[in-house]
Each structure stands twice: as structure tokens, then as C-alpha cells.
Design brief:
By secondary structure, the chain is an alpha+beta fold. The protein folds into four domains: 160 residues, Molybdenum Cofactor Biosythetic Enzyme, Chain A (3-Layer(aba) Sandwich), CATH 3.40.980.10; 58 residues, Molybdopterin biosynthesis moea protein, domain 2; 80 residues, Beta Complex (Molybdopterin biosynthesis moeA protein, domain 3), CATH 2.170.190.11; 69 residues, Beta-clip (Beta Barrel). The protein contains seven helices and 27 strands. The strands form eight sheets. The chain has a six-stranded mixed β-sheet with strand order 7-4-6-5-9-8, with no helix packed on it. It has a six-stranded mixed β-sheet with strand order 16-13-17-20-19-18, with helices on both faces. A five-stranded mixed β-barrel has the order 21-24-23-25-27. A hairpin with a 2-residue loop joins β19 and β20. The protein is elongated, with a radius of gyration of 31 Å. The relative contact order is 0.13. It is an enzyme of class 2 (transferase). This is Molybdopterin molybdenumtransferase. Its cofactor is Mg(2+). It catalyses: adenylyl-molybdopterin + molybdate = Mo-molybdopterin + AMP + H(+). Belongs to the MoeA family.
């Protein structure tokens, strides 16, 4: 049995970037990271562009100008201005070649075809120059950039319709247990509704991992062996819940051994989640989480999250940890470090009742986990505690 810090270190050192690429249409690439540098195919803006609603002027010594026309955004007309002439112009419209300033409409007086301004203005005022944002052939976005909504908008403005991005992992969720039945079926004696697959699927979706399949096996060795062989061969990451302990009907560990999965660790000195397995076969990472839902989700956030971030080649691979002031008392039982469900708000954290590994109700209202180390037996009000902030 190893410590939490040792287990985290092993996950970090044994989950590598996938370094696979896939093509995505720009509108479906949000949340992905660029696989390669993007160079601009155009100047942006592609023409001298008005930054204001107002009047484009060919400057001269006088403060009055002759109005000769109008240019709206999208117009392709190329009006030629002589000195002392002006055109009505709108934001985003192309500025005539001879115009060398745009005066905002609020500072212009109009009298028929004559306009007047109150003072001299500087050359190129309120004109966005050709290629001001980026010039044709220049680097638009670096490899590794996360494609946020703003980045998607920027690439779209350059006319880019498809990008090469880092492929996200294929993930298989495997739940085990004869006692599990689907919601909507009659709950007969001895059965419980299966929740782990839906819980973990939701956690993955929140993190924007969508290539996920769900598999269910009963407590049967040959069925477990067959299913695990199938999903390990077909996926980058396999997450199993249940069947990893040492009971007579816990077949996951035996099946993984027969499949020659390299065991990197099994059992972590922690509560909840002691019977946690992490291993690899070729380039597939395998986690076997405890069957109790709260324990499974805790292990997902503390360990599986790191592997997912490493697969996506992200430099920050752990959930954020902060110091917070406890607003509740808690007495820890036993000598194992404990990871506690909690509510964090404005640098304060409340450790909740109902910390049993099977209890989901408490986790349902949590937004944080509090780490109680091995040498801490009691947390008192106003104590400073290490707090893991959960994704929402």
C-alpha cells in the first residue's frame, strides 16, 4: 500500500500525451488544443477599415469638407477622394485609399453637402490599418493553444474552416456487479440502481471528454476477462468501477493480471478509495476504482483527472488546491489520510456530514474536497485546511 503522494507521482509519470491529431471543423473545435501552428491566410483586417460611424476625410488646411457619398460596411465601391472631400462612413466599412482620417459623427456638423469639424485631426485617426491584427502569412495562433470561444471567433474571421487539434482519448467506462440494474426497472429485493457510469460520464462531459462508451459486466470471471480485453484493445483509457477488492466475486484484479496489464500500484493509504488500481498495457491506461460511488468519484478527481490532463499535454494537471479556513469541526477515525466532501466559499470551507464512501447525497452538494493528512486527527473551526476545488 502506497501513500497518496506516491500514487499521484506514479500517475503523473506514467500517463503521456496522446500526441495524436484529428481534424475538426472550427465550430466543433471548442475546448480542443491546436496540434500545429496556424498561419493567417489573409490580412486582418483585409482592407483599411473604419473604426467609427462618422466621416472619412481627405485632410486639407480648412475645417470644412464637401460630402460626395456614403460607404456602408460590406460596400465594394472605391470612391476617389480629392483634398477637402469626405464620405459618410460606418464602422467596419472600407476606407477610401485617399482618405487619411475618420472623424466620429458626434464631432461633425452637417449642412447639406458640406460638413465642418471643430479642430484639426491627426492622420489615420479612427482607421484600422490593413493587417492590424495579423498579416497574411504571420503566426495567428501557436500550437497548443486552447480553442476558446474567442479563439474560434478569431479563426473564423480569418476564413479558416477546419483545424488540426490534439485528439482526445477514447474512454471506456466499465461497471461490475450482479446487484446493479438500470433506472426505470422495478427495484426488486437485493438490487440497487446503477449510478457510477452516469456519474463518471457526467464528470467526463463536464471536462469536455465526449468519446466515451459504457460497458456493464456481471460478477463472472470469463465475462469480465472478455470485456476488459475488448475495451483495453480499443481505448486509450479504461475506467472500471467495482470488482477490484478481494472478495470471492471480485474478478477485475485477476482478469487484469491474466491480460498482462502492468500493475503500477494497487491500494492507496487513503479514505475513501483504498482499493484503487492503476496500470498500463501498451499505451492504454487502466484505472480500477472502488465500487462505492463517493469513493469512485473521489479517486476520479484526485487521480484519473491527472491522467486525462497529461493525455491532452496540459501543463497544469491537477485540480486547483487552495488554503481555506474551516467553518466546521471534524474528527478523523483511523490512521489513514482522509479526503472529505465539502463546500467551499470565499476562502472558507464547510466539511459536511455523511463522509461514508457509499453516501452520494453529501457529494451531490459538494464543490470541494478537504485533505486531512495522516497526522491530523481533528480539524477545528478556524483551522487552515488544504482544499481541492472541483470542476463545475
Amino acid at each position: 500500500m502506497i501513500s497518496i503522494s506516491e500514487a499521484i507521482s506514479i500517475v503523473k509519470n506514467n500517463s503521456e500525451p496522446l500526441l495524436k491529431q484529428t481534424k475538426k471543423s472550427v465550430e466543433k473545435a471548442g475546448g480542443y488544443h491546436l496540434f500545429e501552428d496556424i498561419y493567417s491566410p489573409i490580412n486582418m483586417p483585409p482592407f483599411r477599415q473604419s473604426a467609427m460611424d462618422g466621416y472619412a476625410l481627405h485632410l486639407h488646411e480648412d475645417l470644412t469638407y464637401t460630402l460626395i457619398g456614403e460607404i456602408q460596411a460590406g460596400d465594394a465601391s472605391r470612391l476617389q477622394l480629392k483634398k477637402g472631400e469626405a464620405v459618410r462612413i460606418f464602422t467596419g466599412a472600407p476606407v477610401p485609399d485617399a482618405a487619411n482620417a475618420v472623424m466620429m459623427q458626434e464631432k461633425v456638423k452637417v449642412d447639406g453637402n458640406t460638413i465642418s469639424i471643430t479642430h484639426k485631426i491627426n492622420q489615420e485617426l479612427n482607421i484600422r490599418p490593413l493587417g492590424e491584427q495579423v498579416k497574411q502569412g504571420d503566426l495567428a495562433l501557436k500550437q497548443g493553444t486552447k480553442l476558446t470561444p474567442a479563439a474560434i471567433g478569431y479563426l473564423s474571421s480569418l476564413g479558416i474552416t477546419e483545424v488540426s487539434v490534439y485528439k482526445k482519448p477514447n474512454i471506456a467506462l466499465v461497471t461490475t456487479g450482479n446487484e446493479l440494474i438500470e433506472g426505470g426497472l422495478e427495484l426488486t429485493y437485493g438490487k440497487i440502481y446503477e449510478s457510477n457510469s452516469k456519474m463518471l460520464l457526467s464528470a467526463l462531459y463536464i471536462l469536455k471528454f465526449y468519446d466515451v462508451t459504457i460497458h456493464k459486466v456481471e460478477d463472472d470471471y470469463h465475462q469480465t476477462l472478455s470485456k476488459l480485453k475488448e475495451v483495453i484493445n480499443a481505448n486509450d483509457l479504461v475506467i472500471i468501477t467495482g470488482g477490484i477488492s478481494v472478495g470471492d466475486y471480485d474478478f477485475v484484479g485477476k482478469a487484469l493480471k491474466e491480460l498482462q496489464v502492468e500493475e503500477l500500484f494497487y491500494k492507496v493509504k487513503q479514505k475513501p478509495g483504498k482499493p484503487l488500481f492503476f496500470g498500463k498495457k501498451h499505451h492504454t491506461s487502466i484505472f480500477a476504482l472502488p465500487g462505492n460511488p463517493a469513493a469512485a468519484l473521489t479517486c476520479f478527481y484526485v487521480y484519473v483527472y491527472i491522467a486525462l490532463q497529461n493525455m491532452m499535454n496540459k501543463k497544469v494537471n491537477e485540480l486547483p488546491r487552495v488554503k481555506a479556513k474551516s467553518v466546521s469541526n471534524f474528527t478523523k477515525k483511523g490512521d489513514r489520510p482522509q479526503i472529505l466532501k465539502a463546500i467551499y466559499n470565499n476562502a472558507e470551507v464547510e466539511i459536511l456530514e455523511g463522509q461514508n464512501s457509499s453516501m452520494q447525497q453529501t457529494f451531490a452538494i459538494s464543490n470541494a474536497l478537504v485533505y486531512a493528512p495522516e497526522d491530523v486527527n481533528e480539524i477545528k473551526i478556524n483551522d487552515t485546511v488544504e482544499t481541492i476545488l472541483l470542476p463545475v
